## 1
Amino acid sequence: MRFSGWQVLRQGLSGNKGWKPQWRDPAPKSKYDIILIGGGGHGLSTAYYLAKNHGLTNIAVLEKGYLGGGNVGRNTTIVRADYSLPGNSGFYSHSLKLWEGLPAELNYNLMLSQRGVYRLFHSDGQRDHFARAGNAIVNQGDDAVLLDQTALRKRLPYLDYDNARFPIHGALYHARGGTARHDAVAWGYARGADQRGVDLIQNCEVTGIDVENGRVRGVQTTRGAIRAKKVGIVVAGHSSRVAAMAGMRLPIESHLLQAFVTEGLKPVIDSVISFGMGHFYISQSDKGGLVFGGDLDFYASYAQRGNLPRAEQVTQAAMTLMPMIGKARTLRSWGGIMDMSADGSPIIDKTHIDGLFLNAGWCYGGFKAVPGSGWAFAHLIATGSPHQTAEKYMLERFKTGHLIDEEGTGAQHNLH
Ligand SMILES: Cc1cc2nc3c(=O)[nH]c(=O)nc-3n(C[C@H](O)[C@H](O)[C@H](O)COP(=O)(O)OP(=O)(O)OC[C@H]3O[C@@H](n4cnc5c(N)ncnc54)[C@H](O)[C@@H]3O)c2cc1C
């Protein structure tokens, strides 16, 4: 069923009884060509591009819970292409271009809103760093404009520019960045993959990976054993656990990240504002809630909820940035598990086991990467060679030391 204004009208006039389930609910077969472990954004987009770009459809996506119940439905929905290091910039640039055509391609209202992203700077040194980053982003073919304080005050008059500790000197502005509805992206890719014949199997946890003579043979699940010639691990915060089933130890730590939303307010923030020095960022949802978050909870955990000290730090940062937020009431908070790599950049690679592939290490930036990652991972699984946008996302870099350290914080997982 295609979505359209006409369908909405027609269904509305007939009591909304004609909508059909958006994907099938198949029982798992005993054998597939390809199994993808994890029905988050990256697993679903990989399945979609395997089918669409490579004509491969004998595929199962195995999800231990429900589609979109992981981080893809828990993030703060920011998409952007303002990375500046070689290895990252081309990849995120490609991903944002895919985002721009995605609502039409998937025939799904992803609520993509390119409302612009501001990254604030607070010192001359930080301004110089952002000027260099902005030039790299422009050279890459994306957009970036350095705004001084006067220009920024006109656009964001409600910020506290004269804060003693973090006076705001200006911002790097990325006009094509913005937000998208997170779970709709998962649903859109799920529907697209299902339409092409991919089996999406929910409530099916992978409990073991079968390896014989250095080759992957399939997986053990809570719904029985399933054989496959190729298996992709795409489980974000659970990467280390699932890779351990194949005897692998990853350069990844899993950490908690929280987010918060206020009660619905009249429109006040028409962009995304990133206050990196205070580890705080904020936007406003279409329902009016101010959506914001901060840093990791700073200890490794597989719990999907955060703790109060971080909530306190985040609200302090919010008050530092825009004191008027003190009048808003926080409605709820939630957490997700971040697969923090040692350099803050992802892994899209083969493993030492034939037929076993790994997609991981998205840290807290993997939502914007969903289209680009699926595209590149599908290419790798289908052809055996890395896609040109993801050539540097190899596991080997953690041995050779050729890290892609966008933050420049060194090899410490929780600082990226
Ligand atoms: C609070 C928060 C804010 C964020 N904000 C942003 C943002 O603004 N912009 C941005 O770009 N990124 C953001 N992120 C990061 C982004 O959400 C993640 O990097 C990305 O969603 C991870 O990829 P995924 O969607 O495939 O993960 P998930 O949705 O977590 O998918 C992995 C799936 O694997 C399944 N799984 C795990 N183990 C097994 C198993 N054994 N068998 C079967 N299935 C299994 C899980 O149930 C899960 O559904 C944020 C994350 C959080 C938590």
## 2
Amino acid sequence: MPEGDTVWNTARALGRAIEGKVIQRSDFRVPQLATVDLAGWTVAESASRGKHLLLRLTKERRLTLHSHLRMDGAWRTYQKGERWRGPAHLVRVALHTPDTVAVGFHLHELQLVPTDDERRVVGHLGPDLLGVDWDAEEAMRRLRERPERPVADALLDQRNLAGIGNLYKTETLFLRGVSPWTPLGAVEDLPALVTLAQRLLAANKGRWSQATTGSLRKGEEHWAFERAGKPCRRCGTTIRRWTGGDHDRITYWCPTCQPGEAPSGSSTRPLLARE
Ligand SMILES: [Zn+2]
């Protein structure tokens, strides 16, 4: 699922493929943009802000094609004449340049806004963990506004800081030994936690695999994420999984390495005996 680093990588790959090129033909397959024609517009820049992708275009004025990948969206590029991989019915837009076609699959919130007005679509976001203007102090200030909130939910809230999804939330909390349900105000050393999240994301910039353990080997990339029922790599306790909180997100954690608060109706004891 796309997290900040995936969107950053996508923006960079798109940029390398079509930045500086003139769009010869555009094909929007969403009702709100069905009549838009971007022929003659130049792709000036491809950028990301948290999990939002901003494709900036120029002609007589400047426009930004905004998209959000959410769980399943993707941008892919193809050489002219190359067969597109991916289901045709999920195509939301295709931008044809002289030698390359950029195709957006299952994009969300697809819209065109004046570039000077980008705040309308990304202005609500907190500091971007992968942005050149990343501001840890401001992220911390926003996080601390609701000290009673479970830290896992607060980290996923893009209004606090932008770019963390379920993977980096899970792994950051594991590595810091913090239970996902700890009220934010009770987290020991919040700056260290935020710094670690930023470091984990930044480490995966420029590559599509998302490793937090230092190993890119399949099955070794993560500490707790998607490892429910398996032994913790540090202590052997069975990694647990729980669904709930804001937006019903899945949380993985090691009850031994991350002691303390646990969801109501759940004990901190492992569900499965360790044999
Ligand atoms: Zn453990």
